[in-house]
């Protein structure tokens, strides 16, 4: 029997195509403007399958669209970066994303309505908010096909593509991927005139018995099946975490046996943003392995709130104690087979993986197409078992990383850090005025922020303010001991304002002085060790806070951080 055929636009690494291949579809062509994506596509689907071309080339050329292969299926996943809410806090220009998407829809419309069309279905994947920037429906006029429609005796006002009602938000974890990844899929089974949504196969434990589902695949499961990244070279067999019948030699497993350890300055910054963010909720640090992974993103970074952080398999403290995932771990979390190869540097490979469509999701839609067209189910995914490592740049080194060149921050980088968030307030050490949102570092300041939202009231305290509150703290439980600890030993670790800035930029302490993130961390640890029978401070004779009752810990933090500011600015 002839296979159903497909063509894939914005094909990237080929995740959309992979799910359909696993359901027995024939991959005809994949188009992308990024060479590493085309190289990766050609490596995995055959030389000549991937085509290096910008989809905007089709925007004003009907002839070019008509010259494309006629296939049963059209896939597309327009670049999500301009639609993503994380791009410039969601304020990025959306016009390019709209243009790319509408060019794709134009191709679909031509192939759908051309004489003797063989198109049976089309699907488009993007970030969840992308459809808010698209029209509810597109007629031929909207897609620049006025003359083409008239030529083919179609009304230019006829609806060619419907977005509303043909879109659904899909969580990849509900279809067998080991990550929570929500994306919108838009499309149509042509014979039905609408999108048919595949039934989910996985769910939370509380759902599985009533709905005949399998439990979510956990991050820890993926990590447990794969060998540890610090393993020695071996010819033992490795099983694929997602496709257990697929086995290869450990020595043939690419992009996994290398050290992704982070400098302490990197993972500590990520930890702070995850568990102690000024106005956002708490996240797990390191990752919660009893749940599906959080979303694999296109940028591999170990310092951000969104970074994926694991504890390293190496026995290290500080530098290298935590690590980011390997490219192979990330690709398995996405649902790629361990035989699938990515072409490029580590950063390129990570981008290829993070930008891809989860094969588990595309496989579910491929299965729906087969079912609707009465082609029958493919129960066991057709996974590529022949391993092709020729011309694959392998990241494996089997070596432990040397932490001898920490990255430096830019000159004049801003600093803002608080020891803890408690009582819905934070006491902050910064090198710029948070109230006026100074763009550059100026001098060291102590301030307080009220509330969990960005832009909540903030107040600066003048240098030497610690002297005003010292008598109050002395009369509190643990007060005298705390002041003694600050004055004997801690104060000597505070450098001048210039040296504090230098240490922050170089991301390490110098001599007996502590780098500012370490200073704040130390203050937090010191205060958190104190036990208070009555943890709340009630203001009486002096107004320190804009609240009558605050945690005593925040009063102690204000004392310590204001002393840092006073000593630094006057040394």
TrEMBL record:
Output the InterPro entries linked to this UniProt entry: C5-Methyltransferase, C5_DNA_meth_AS, C5_MeTfrase, SAM-dependent_MTases_sf
**What organism is the protein native to?**
Mucilaginibacter calamicampi
Catalyzes what?
a 2'-deoxycytidine in DNA + S-adenosyl-L-methionine = a 5-methyl-2'-deoxycytidine in DNA + S-adenosyl-L-homocysteine + H(+)
Per the record, the domain of life is Bacteria
On whether Methyltransferase is a keyword of this UniProt record, the answer is yes
Task: Tell me which family the UniProt entry assigns to this protein.
Answer: Belongs to the class I-like SAM-binding methyltransferase superfamily. C5-methyltransferase family.
Which EC class is the enzyme in? transferase
One of the GO BP terms on file: methylation
Query: What positions does UniProt annotate as the active site of this protein?
Result: 80
Provide the GO MF annotations for this entry.
DNA (cytosine-5-)-methyltransferase activity
Q: Which UniProt keywords apply?
A: Methyltransferase, Restriction system, S-adenosyl-L-methionine, Transferase
PANTHER family per the record?
CYTOSINE-SPECIFIC METHYLTRANSFERASE, DNA (CYTOSINE-5)-METHYLTRANSFERASE 1
Q: What is its EC number?
A: 2.1.1.37
Q: Which SUPFAM superfamilies match?
A: S-adenosyl-L-methionine-dependent methyltransferases
Q: Does the keyword Cell membrane apply?
A: no
What protein name is recorded for this chain? DNA (cytosine-5-)-methyltransferase
């Amino acid at each position: 029997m002839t296979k159903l055929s497909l063509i894939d636009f914005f094909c990237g690494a080929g995740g959309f195509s992979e799910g359909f291949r696993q359901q027995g579809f024939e991959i005809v062509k994949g188009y992308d403007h990024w060479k590493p994506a085309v190289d990766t596509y050609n490596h995995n689907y055959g030389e000549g399958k991937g085509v290096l071309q910008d989809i905007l080339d089709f925007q004003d050329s009907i002839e070019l669209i008509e010259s494309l292969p006629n296939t049963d299926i059209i896939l597309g996943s327009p670049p999500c970066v301009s639609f993503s809410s994380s791009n410039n806090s969601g304020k990025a220009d959306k016009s390019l994303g709209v243009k790319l998407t509408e060019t794709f829809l134009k191709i679909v419309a031509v192939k759908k309505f051309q004489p003797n069309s063989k198109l049976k279905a089309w699907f488009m994947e993007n970030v969840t908010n992308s459809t808010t920037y698209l029209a509810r429906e597109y007629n031929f006029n909207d897609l620049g096909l006025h003359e083409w429609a008239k030529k083919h005796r179609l009304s230019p006002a006829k609806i060619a593509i419907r977005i509303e009602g043909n879109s659904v938000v899909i969580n990849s974890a509900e279809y067998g991927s080991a990550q929570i990844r929500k994306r919108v899929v838009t499309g149509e089974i042509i014979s039905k005139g609408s999108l048919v949504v595949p039934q989910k196969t996985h769910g939370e434990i509380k759902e599985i018995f009533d709905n005949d589902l399998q439990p979510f695949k956990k991050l820890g499961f993926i990590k447990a099946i794969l060998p540890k990244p610090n393993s020695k070279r071996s010819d033992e067999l490795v099983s694929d975490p997602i496709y257990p019948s697929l086995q290869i030699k450990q020595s043939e497993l690419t992009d996994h046996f290398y050290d992704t350890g982070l400098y302490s300055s990197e993972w500590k910054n990520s930890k702070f943003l995850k568990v102690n963010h000024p106005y956002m909720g708490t996240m797990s640090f390191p990752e919660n392995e009893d749940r599906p992974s959080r979303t694999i993103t296109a940028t591999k970074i170990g310092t951000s709130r969104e970074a994926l952080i694991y504890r390293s398999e190496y026995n290290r403290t500080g530098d290298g104690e935590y690590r980011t995932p390997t490219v192979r771990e990330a690709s398995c979390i996405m649902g790629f087979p361990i035989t699938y190869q990515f072409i490029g540097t580590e950063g390129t490979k990570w981008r290829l993986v993070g930008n891809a469509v989860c094969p588990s999701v595309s496989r579910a839609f491929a299965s729906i197409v087969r079912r609707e067209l009465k082609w029958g189910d493919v129960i066991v995914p057709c996974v590529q078992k022949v391993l092709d490592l020729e011309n694959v740049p392998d990241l494996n080194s089997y070596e432990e990383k040397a932490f001898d060149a920490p990255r430096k921050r830019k000159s004049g980088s801003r600093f803002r850090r608080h020891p803890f968030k408690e009582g819905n307030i934070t006491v902050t050490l910064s090198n710029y005025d948070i109230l006026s949102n100074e763009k550059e570092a100026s001098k060291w300041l102590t301030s307080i922020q009220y509330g969990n939202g960005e832009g909540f009231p903030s107040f600066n305290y003048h240098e030497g303010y610690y002297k005003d509150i010292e008598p109050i703290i002395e009369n509190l439980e643990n007060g005298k001991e705390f002041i003694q600890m600050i004055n004997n030993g801690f104060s000597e670790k505070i450098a001048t304002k210039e040296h504090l800035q230098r240490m922050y930029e170089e991301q390490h302490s110098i001599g007996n002085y502590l780098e500012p993130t370490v200073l704040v961390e130390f203050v937090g640890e010191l205060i958190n060790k104190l036990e208070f029978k009555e943890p709340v401070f009630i203001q009486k004779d002096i107004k320190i806070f804009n609240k009558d009752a605050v945690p005593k810990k925040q009063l102690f933090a204000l004392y310590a951080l204001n002393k840092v500011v006073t000593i630094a600015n006057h040394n």
